[in-house]
Each structure stands twice: as C-alpha cells, then as structure tokens.
Amino acid sequence: MAHVITTYGGGELFILVFDAIAALFKADRTGMVMSLIRIGLMVGSVYVVMLMFFKNSLQEGAKWFLWVVVATNLLFLPKTTVYIDDPLTKIREKVDNVPFALGAFAGFVSQMGRAITEKVESAFTLPGYMPYHQTGTVFASSLMSQVGQFRIVDPAFKGNMERFINQCVVYDAMIGHKYTLTDLQNTPDIWTLVMTKASPVLGFLYKEGNTPGTIMTCKAGVQKLNALWNAEIAKATALYGSRVQNQTLTKGLFFTHLHNGYQFLSDISKSAEDILKQEIMINAIEESSNNKLSELGAASNYAATKALLQQRTAYTVAGEIAAKTLPLFKNVIEALSYALFIFIVVLALLPNGYKILLTYCGILVWTQLWAPLYAVLNLIMTLYGKSETKSLIGEEGLTLLNSSAIINANADMVTLAAWLSVSIPFISYGILKQGAAAFVGLAQHLGSAMQSAASGAAAETVSGNISLGNVSMGTQAYQN
Predict the structure, then answer these.
(1) pTM
(2) What is the pLDDT of residues 342-363, one digit of tens each?
(3) Integer Cα distance of 403 and 393 in angstroms
C-alpha cells in the first residue's frame, strides 16, 4: 500500500530525507536497521532487568518483551511505499522501502492536514480566490507588490523612453492642449494616451544601436517605441517576474496569475501585458521627474507619523525575514521530524518506549496543523488586501496617481501576513497541548512591535529631542 506525504515547497528536501531513511533501513549489510534494533534491545534488556530486580516483578519484563515483538515485527521491519507530493513545485516522486510505522502515520497525518486545508479553503473562499494550498500565502498581493519592481531593462529602450518623456510627454502636459497633467495622472492607460496624442511638432533624440541617433518628431518616435514593447515586457518579466514567493514561474504562468490576481483584488479585468506596460510607464515617468516635496508638521503629527513608520518598519523587516524563512522553517522542522525516526527506533525499544513513540507522533501532528491555519490566515489577509486595493484603485484601474499607494498597500499585506504567520506554530502548539500560555505568548509577540515603536516616538516628543535623517559613518574614538 502506498502512502502520500504532501508538502508545500519542500518536495526536493523530503525526497532526499526519505531516500536516506529508506537506505538506512535496508535489511542487508548496507542498512543499519538491524544494528539499531540490536542497540535498542541491548540497552532495553539491561534497563528492564534492573526494573525487574528493583521492583521484584516479572510483569515489567513481560510487558517489555511483548512491546518489542510488536514494535519490531509490525512497525520497524515491515516496509511500505511513500509518494512525496508538492503542489507548489509540481513534484511527485515515489520512495520505496520506507519503514511502515513512519510511512503509514506520516502519510495519514499529511493527508489529514491536506484534506482539512482544502476543506477549509473550499468553505472559507471568495470568487477568484487564490487558495494557499495552490499558490501560497497572499499570493495575489505578492504579485501586485512585485509589479512595482518592474522597470525598463533594455538600456537603449530606457534612454529613448526617458528622452521621449522629457521632451514630449512633459511638454505636452505643461502646454495642456492635447492632455493635462490631471489627465496623465488619472488615465488607466498612459501609453495609449501619449501615443495617440503625440505631437507632430515636438521632437526628441532617438538612438538605435551604436549610432549617434537622429532627431525625430514625437509622433514618429512613439511608433518605433511602440513596436518594442512586447520584447521589453518579456525581458522585464524574465528579470522581475520569474520568481514569486520562492516559486519559479514561467512567463505564461506569471501572466496568468497576474491577470487573475489583479482581477480578484480590483474587480477590473486587464491583461497582464497591459498591467505591466502601465506600471513600467508609471515608474519611467516617476524616475524622469526630479520634483520632490517634503513637509514637517507639528510635534504630535511627528510622533504619530514616526511611531507608524517605526511599527511599519518593524513589521516589514520581521515580515520579510519571516516570508523568506517561515516556509523553509516549516519544511526543515517537518523534515527533521521524519529524520528523527532513525533514533526513535532505539528509544522506542526501551521500557515504556511506546510513550516516546506517541510523543513523536504528536510532533508530526503539530507540524500538520500549520497548513490549515496558514489557509485561514491567507483568506483573512487576502480579504483585507482586496478591500484595501479596491478602495485605492477606484473604477479606473492602475494610474500614475494611485500606483504607489496600491503597491505599498499590497506590500504591507504581504509583510504583515508573514509577520502574523509567525504565530501559527504557537497556535498549533496551544491546540495540541491545550495550553493557554501559548496564546499569551502569541499576544505579546504581536503587540511588541507596536508598543516599542509608539513608546520610542512618544519619548522623543515629550523630551523634545527630535532627530531625523542623521547619518554617521566611519566614526572613531581614541582614549576618551
């Protein structure tokens, strides 16, 4: 009978672990299962003899002997086949000769965890929702935050686009005859606006290859730039969109996910190419403009703003660390739990060894509780991300005016979700052990960043010691 073990992102790691376990548990000379059993029997027999001597009872020896017969012949020596299934990386591989006790129980709790995760997500769902067991945590918001990184990649195209924006777009917006700055800020398709209304009078320097370039009108140059967009989007996607949340994506898969995610978050249907073209144009216009404004408000505004920024920075730093390490942490903990079975063979053959085996089974159940809780967290944060995006994007879609707010809002959702996902091990442990202390520790963990940020900013405000933008490098002191 084959057993399936499901993992989210750790397929290759689990295959290596179970291959190693299968090799170690071979009954021939290349394996070490018989050596482990002999060690367990030797230590266990000495231990049980001492128990029988001090307790003056043969019952301890009889119970131990019965347990050894059951454990060795029904749990450790029989073999089974295990399939490692990773829905995120699309890996499914067969591993033979896995100890029956490990394969059967690990497969059972893994499928139980997967079934609960899928049932939870089928019950707690939204139209167009990207479930955790298929894409990972807050995948739609991750895509939107990653879109903000897209820039023009080709140097020649970048130079020509910058000159076109500076000489054509800026002047046309300033003149206000073809379109105004307000039109430029609020249009959901900047490129179509500037292309269809490009001036036949104004011009810019257009360079091709190693040539010095030629002056051509904006109307003629924009047609040349328009013909290069598809190739530029493909290059940018290969650089910025090939990996999202530790997942390697093809161009087609990235475009599909981006289209679905954008439609889910904004209720507006646009192709991935149009979304990327709009964001690249927004970034190109922003990079071509050097106008920056700054203002300083009252002390109370300073305190609130700095506290919010400190809290956001704390969440961002911890969230970025958690986003990168938590999936790895979960997979490593689970892989170590499976690898621990090698030592469980020895420990389980001691008197009362069944208690050690039950504790080990509890560890496997603990790790399987994470995925369903991640699924619920994913739904909650995705719902908030959708609400935030819809309130910012309006009915028009992604524009120059709302782009930064939308990208930052979704980036906040990603980092906050990663920060909150740190609580999942606490919650699952509290459920398993019925421990209220785990939830108390969880509350302290979630409130620590907010409390430290607010107290630090308030202390500066009360004392009047306001300090901003101080940079210190290479400071040295001698005999102070």
Answers:
(1) 0.66
(2) 888 888 887 777 888 888 888 8
(3) 8
